[in-house]
Amino acid sequence: MNIALLIVVFLAIIGYELPGILRNGWWAELIVFAILIAMGFALGLLQIMGVALPCPVSGIEFLVSQLVRLFE
């Protein structure tokens, strides 16, 4: 049930956004949109299936610390 609802929601988002992107010929935006939709769907599906997802804070802290070291 939850997976079907997730699919319906993502199909609704795609159905709303995709015609405008195609009509305007925004091909780079289409690629970014497809990547973000795929990532969002995959994360949503994993969440529904009960897979423990890693916390993104540790990755962000690592990136920020590397940037700070770069500008020291």
Please indicate the count of domains: 1
- Estimate the mean pLDDT confidence: 94
Q: What is the distance, rounded to the nearest whole angstrom, between the alpha carbons of the first and last residues?
A: 52 Å
Number of helices: 3
The total beta strand count reads: 0
> What does the overall shape look like?
flat
Low-confidence stretches: none
Oligomer classification: single chain
- What does the main sheet amount to? none
Helix coverage percent of residues?
A: over 70%
Rounded to the nearest angstrom, the radius of gyration is 17 Å
Find the structural class using helix and strand composition.
Answer: mainly alpha
H/E element string?
A: HHH
**Percentage of β-strand residues:** under 5%
Describe the structure.
- This protein has helices at 2-24, 27-49, 57-70.
- It starts with a helix and ends with a helix.
- It is flat.
- Helix content is 83%, strand content 0%.
- The model has no long low-confidence stretch (mean pLDDT 94).
- 0% of the residues are buried.
Features:
72 residues, mainly alpha, 0% strand, flat
Write a brief structural summary.
The chain has helices at residues 2-24, 27-49, 57-70. The chain is an all-alpha fold and 72 residues long.
